Amino acid sequence: MVLYAVDVDENKAEDGAAPAAPAPSPVHTEKRPMSEGERLQLQSQMLKLQAEKLRLEAEKEQIKMEREALLKKQKKQQDTDRLVEKLRAAQSSPAGMASPEAAAAELKAVVKTYIRNIDADSLARIRDLSSEADTPEQALAYKNLADAVLKALNELDARQAKEIREELAFRFKDETPPTPSSNAPFDQFSDVEAAMRNASGGTSSIDQLTQEMMRNNSRGFSTIYAINLPQWLPREFMRTLESFEPLLDEDVRTLRTEIFKMETFFVTDVDKTPLAVAYMGTLRKPSEEVFKDVEKRLQALEGGLKDRVQLFLFENPRPQMQEMGGMMGGGGDAENPEVMFMAVSTRVKPLPVGGGQVTLSLLSLGATALNCLVYSILTFYSPADIVNKLGEAPLARLDDALPVAAGILGIQLAHDLAHTLAAKAKDVKLGVPIYIPSLQVGTFGSVLRFVSFPKSRKDMFDVAMAGPLTGLALSLAAFAAGMAMTNGAPVEVSEQWPMLPVALFRSSLMLWQVGQALFSADVVNLPLVNQIHVHPLAIIGALGLLTQALQAMPIGRLDGGRATTSVFGRKAATFLSASLVLYQVVSGVVLGNTLQLFWGTVVIIFQNAQEMYARDEISPVDGNRRNLLLLLWVVAAVVLLPGVPWRDAGVFDDFGGFMT
Question: Half-sphere exposure (CA, 13 Å, Cβ side) for 145?
């Protein structure tokens, strides 16, 4: 930088004379070097400006595309109106027309001329004009025109006529049913709908229709596939739902323009069906951040859209080609993966809890409580005394058995309460528990399903893990405390306590090791057929550990299966679940593990299917939760793996070993 110093003669300036400008003398100043922080700040500002420029250019391009789409739509509307006018003019019998047949022939000629321009929009426009008509005569004329056009089109091109009828059936399901034909796949759809109309007094809806199709697999799913069920709609998602309902066209457009913004989720394709709408695109930010942003926009938007639409974030099952994505600004890569937002009606909900399920829950609870009581009474008798003493006075030890039964069932109730509290904290609704009694361990736990969609995989994980973690903690504490109180207890006191077979300790690595640490190793290593007196807490804890470990297995909709699905995804969870079910069969049939055989049967019947989807199926679970699941697997394995071969133990044969 060069500065110039100029001297001014004040006297000459006062006289009004212009002062002579002396030759400038350059003054050199030392240039201060830019610090590293200033340089980085300048680069940051430049990057922000470039990013803002790109964002504005992208928004400009988006506005341009939307304007072109609007102009194209307006032109389409104008072309459709002109076509309708030509059809109407041909359909109206002019003066001198010999007969209605001649008018139909004239209309057919016009249809043939413009056959490639006639589509569902043309017929829908005629319907709109019919509803907007000033007089009933005009409305009837437009309706007759639509029927005549379809008839003429069917004679000229039956395939095109069928496609238009199907499209109209989707749009106006109650007013434009397709005409019967011999092998048309859509006829099944129409037949089911017609039967429902007769049963419901003439009314029908897409959700009623879908329910009927889901209840009747022979006609239901085959019919859904026949009407081109989209490949991106998960089948497990359908099977857990009560109904489907189509979205309004205005809501579909609003989602595209107001909810999905280019800076977070760039939409590259939209696929609209009567069941759901898929928005394919690429993520511009981490999936969890994008989902929160989209949900925030949806909740903040006025007009009640949040009350009509709910969104799900899935992997894109049919990603765009990379070169096409590059042309459109989309395309998936490691930083911007291709995903799919699926929009469905808020009336699409999981199957609700009915009055029959509440009754079944109460009955199952009573049956399980009674079973636990019988099991607890048996623990006070040796195998030799069961027939004699128990037969003479079956209720003699009822007062002693009641606390044991209450403890066995109480741990499972605490398990279910933990689920309920976690679900409430995560705003997830659960059904009523259906309890499963067991003659081997008192109870196999309960079947408790989701009746609302978890917001994320993390929420599903937290709800699923709350139960087994609580149950295992209580059971281990009870078992350790019971064994500690058993150690050194006077004989006259311990003889009044219940008994456990030594085989039960050896049936589990954890029971065996904890028993050795807190009790006498010599006693625990007695012959397997022997029975030893233990504190009631030890029985409660031992059976609780087994029951909770069974529910923690990573299978299907068990707690362990739900947590595994949340952490490792559905493919890995399905593979692991199938492998463990196979292990249960082999373990029960070949190795003699009757506990796993019976539990495997229960799982296959009630809990083998995949759990319903979370609304955000992409955002991963953090490392702490993953490590917690791995710890649960280790604990469950240590509890369930035996210390001796199952055939040698035989502990779970005949009422848990008490009748061997």
Answer: 28
State pTM to two decimals: 0.64
Report the helix count and the strand count for the chain, using DSSP H and E. Answer: 27, 10
Q: Which residue type does 410 have? A: G
Residue with tokens 């489907």: 244
Give tens-digit pLDDT for 198-230: 444 444 444 444 444 444 443 333 344 434 467
Residue spans in the chain of domains classed CATH 3.30.980: 249-345
Alpha helices in 157-278 (DSSP H): 158-171, 186-199, 206-215, 220-226, 235-239, 249-254
Beta bridge mates, 26: 4
Neighbours of 528 (CB within 10 A): 19
Among 116, 103, 212, smallest CA distance to 157 is for 116
In whole angstroms, give the CA distance from residue 365 to residue 377: 18
Which ranges in 228-354 belong to alpha helices (H)?
235-239, 249-254, 287-300, 322-328
Q: How far apart are the first and last CA of the chain?
A: 103
DSSP state of 656: G
- Give the integer Cα–Cα distance in Å for 176 and 161: 13
Place of tokens 């209840």: 215
Percent of the chain with pLDDT over 70: 75
Cβ-count burial 606-638 (b if 16+ within 10 Å, e if not): bbbebbbbbbbbbbbbeeebbebbeebbebbeb
Write the CB contacts of 648 (distance below 8 Å, at least 6 apart in sequence).
528
3-state secondary structure 265-297: EEEEEEEECCCCEEEEEEECCCHHHHHHHHHHH
CB neighbour burial string for 434-463, b if at least 16 within 10 angstroms, e if fewer: bbbbbebbbbbbbbbbbbbbbbbbbbbbbb
* Strand stretches in 422-483, DSSP E: 434-438, 442-447
- Copy the structure tokens of residue 304: 């009640």
CB atoms within 10 A of CB 90: 23
Q: Are 455 and 614 in contact (CB under 8 A)?
A: yes
To which H or E segment does residue 345 belong? strand 338-345
Q: Cite the beta strand spans of 72-130 per DSSP E.
A: none
- pLDDT, mean of residues 66-85: 79
Rounded Cα distance, 174 and 204, in Å: 7
Cα distance between residue 270 and residue 235, in whole Å:
20
Q: pLDDT at position 262, please? A: 84
Q: Are 561 and 481 in contact (CB under 8 A)?
A: no
> 370 with 337: CB under 8 angstroms?
no
Q: How far apart are alpha carbons 14 and 7 in whole angstroms?
A: 15
443 three-state secondary structure: strand
Cβ atoms within 10 Å, residue 126 = 23
SS3 210: helix
Answer CATH for 249-345 from 3.10.450, 1.10.287, 3.30.980, 3.30.160: 3.30.980
From residue 130, alpha-carbon distances to 92, 135, 141, 165, 415 in Å are 15, 9, 8, 18, 61
